[in-house]
Amino acid sequence: MKRPHAFTALIIAWLAGLGCTQAITLEVREGNSTCIKAELSALFSITYNTSNSMKTVQISLPDSATVDTDSSSCGSNGSSPWLVAVFGAGHAFGLSFSSNGSLYSVSNLTLQYNLSDAAVFPDANSSDVVTVVSTSVGIWARVNTTYCCLSATTFGIGGATVTFSDMKMEAYMPGNDLSSAESVCMADQTSTTTSPTSSSTTAAPPPPPTPTPAGKPEQGSYFVNNANGTTCLLAQMGLQFNVSYVLESQNKTVQEIVNLNPSLTNASGSCEASSATLVLMQERSTTLNFTFTLNSTTSKYHLSGISLLANWPDLTEPLSRSNSSLDYLRSTLGRSYKCNTEQILVVTPDFSLNTFRLQVQPFGVTTNQFATAEECQMDQDQMLIPIIVGAALAGLVLIVLIAYLIGRKRSHAGYQTI
Fold this sequence. Notes:
- The chain is α+β, with helices and mostly antiparallel strands.
- Helices cover about 15% and strands about 45% of the residues.
- Strands 1, 2, 3, 10, 11, 12 and 13 form a seven-stranded mixed sheet that branches. Strands 14, 15, 16, 23, 24, 25 and 26 form a seven-stranded mixed sheet that branches.
- It is globular, with a radius of gyration of 28 Å.
């Protein structure tokens, strides 16, 4: 027997308040074959406007959620595989997937919520159906393995968040059941095991060898368009990875400096009111994700997150590094940020991103061109150096000239006396 809608909403809200979410199973099928299967719990946190304030609600994905067969697909005819679940009064949640042959990943998280649902969004001052999107979220696994992450993991989607837990999922499935081999997420590895790398770090191994210089990287030009085709993000920069990882063939940690090649790199991303992402993918083996955040109160923006996902030769496992609490490249809305000097952006203890001849504008692009630039402090300091040196040389010349004139005057006076 079905519960009344209001009672169901009350139960969901009570479970969310306790931090309890229900695990459900979702499958995308094509004929008799399953191509995507997910067992997961999901808790959405959404902030919306009322007539006189802002409210935040938490909604768990209910066990009544079903797969939308019209929107979901296995990705035939060159399209991306999609798992779309619908629930409640006009709400939906979707995941799209991509693969490079050896890895698959969630390339897109999409959340649609209906503000006219008064049971979920009481006193909302709008009845719009809102859709928010996040790209390149860092969920990946080897092909023919199940992505497994029991730990609670939160991802931003526009102005909302989703927290997954008890998650087992596989795309591009070879059979109808989840593969027994698993790709375990970093959160589970950190919370349940002590990795060999951690143990060796505790034992204070010798430092890795100094990396061979890769030379300055070539400057690339990248842009992101919004839904109506208008450019909303501009970037020009040379990029260089400085990263440590374990070589499988030698079973040792090495430190490498690797340049991103713009001619082999594709750009994508998204632009929201207070956040923007730039995703750079090189030959489907390297994905670099930048997240920019805008403070609407101060009209200041900054680079808040960087993530790297790489599947390079001779790795013991795919390389994944990320940090979502950074504070780099600060500038003002309506202006671009520019820094020709090399910058070292430390992301994690074993990964930093070196930038060269950088100019970026993630918000307020109006003419498909960079707005007036705010120069980084290092560029300003370098501009001062020739001024200071020139002033010092001018002062030295002036002192020599004055000394010469004084000496000449004294010498001339001496001749007159004789």
